Request: fold
Amino acid sequence: MSILVNKDTKVIVQGFTGKEGSFHAEQCLAYGTKIVGGVTPNKGGQEHLGLPVFNTVKDAVATTGATVSMIFVPPAFVADAVMEAAAAGITLAVVITEGAPVRDMQAAKAFAVKHGMMTIGPNCPGVITAEECKIGIMPGAIFKKGHVGLISKSGTLTYEGANQVCKEGFGITTAVGIGGDPIIGLSYKQLLKMFQEDDDTHAIVMIGEIGGDLEIQAAHYIKEHITKPVVAFIAGQTAPAGKRMGHAGAIISGSAGTAKEKMDALEAAGVRVVVSPAEIGKAVKEVLSK
Amino acid sequence: MNIHEYQAKQIFAKYGVPTPRGIIANTPEEAVANAQELGGKIWVVKAQIHAGGRGLGGGVKLARSMDEVKQLASEILGMTLVTHQTGPEGKLVQKVYIEEGADIVDELYLGVVLDRAKEMPVIMASTEGGMDIETVAHNTPEKIIKIAVDPSIGFQGFHGRELVFGLGITDPQEQNKLIKFAKALYTLYMENDAEMIEINPLIKTGSGDFMALDGKMGFDDSALGRHPEIAAMRDISEEDADEREASQYGLSYISLDGEIGCMVNGAGLAMGTMDTINYMGGTPANFLDVGGSANAQTVAKGFEIILKNPKVKAIFVNIFGGIVRCDRIANGILEATKLVDVHVPVIVRLDGTNAPEAAEILRNANIPNVIAATDLADGAAKAVAAAKGE
Reply:
């Protein structure tokens, strides 16, 4: 078991024939992901990486039965691509592209929700179910199969966290990079619920950062609904206020969105909060050997 | 990206948001000419910097004669203005805005920002104009009205009614004027991909009109491509020179107060590295995200920018190689040490794809001040020790 995706998930790629789309689609195929085709307007009917190319997502879904789309289109076209996927009946869009305007994502997400489509990202490493299905740009080899679910706003901290968990002798069910933009698709709350309901997941690692209040909402949710052990790290305890720390959403506005308020809220919800990301692996070992 | 007050007011004017008349000046002579052109008996000389709190810092002054306009403009132009938002180093004032004096009866607050939890723009308003809104929110949250506007329906009549009744405005003419004002502000927020607008204070004049006495605007950097006229308003003298240089090379850099330079791939891990250094008793000198494609050139540039800071006593390079293989990064680091004179200890932690090969490369190179680390904790500990001269 796992969440969101597995070895049978049929995936298409929007922005399939572009440089990034091609490179990562190839990596995903090598990992074992069941990519069944891709979409690039005006290249419909061609073949790319041995797979069919379609002009529209609608055509791709009708022919291949794909349910998930991995999106690599340039930033200005992200909203259009997400809405096209939603309208065509895709159930999960994974948006890797960085730099989509916030106003676009606002509209695209609202449309996606209306059509019952889940979105991951934008500006994220994607989602991986260890040793089954990788949809994104993460290095697949570090994700060994196991029983820890991982949710992170940061790409490299996803790798850091997963690597430590695996080095301690544990493994990952599914890891989801949710992205650090001001408006994102799936967030901690929905994913925590999925991991809680997944029998194979025994513990959850949650990696957050400064800015916004998704982690605080997650803390409230954990207190009420999550019985599995949760380990959390919040990046940016040493970040200055008012400065955007790399991610578009990673900014302390006035006195809101600090690491401290998030860590306090999570601790109050019974979460094992670590002060350094170097402690994630050890903390997982601790909570799982209790 | 942020813009100056006078630029925000140019945008306001385009959308029919009333402001006092004003003209920008670069010299005291221009200031006087502007005041003469505006006419009247009273003028405000306003320092143009990207920071709030200008009035308290002495950057906004009233003039009652041309001599005073000239006097105040020469004092303010060239001054280093320190406010609670500039940091102790302050900001150099290079432009002053000369504005006609206004007849103020009442001061309100009006702003538009993205509510990340609701995923919609929210109009914020308060009767406590002229005060720091953070303080109002903290001490008297009930005095702030928040009205979320769903962009799929836009600004409707009920949004306007919530606003005016919330602010206790009872005169129907005044109600209409303020609703029109707020609607225009919402429209310009959406059409220009603004990230935030703040009018503090929004004044009511003796004749019952509403005007933006101040104006602050920030924009979504990701959307500037479709707003060339706004991108052209960028004032690079307001930006940190090192941060700007770094961004030209695809590096995201922010300087801090500490002693350990950090070079990391990924924003989250970069913050996590700073936190780990702090946790182990050291102090980070900067945030630096080299991005996904760390190579010899970007690493060399990173070293160069970090080493401009004389406080740096050690550098911690912390890379988790994903798609980019660690052996390639190791070679990049070696090459970079040849391009830049790195005179402090460099602690290198490379993990991920091909990490053992990378460690081998660094070991064989045997550069005296390059110290290999096995993981994040080990690297941070070694960097903290090196900075202390241990």
Q: What stands out?
A: Chain A has a mean pLDDT of 95. Chain A has two domains: 10-120, 138-288. Chain A touches chain B through 61 residues (CB under 8 Å). Residues 69 and 93 of chain A are 5 Å apart (CA to CA).
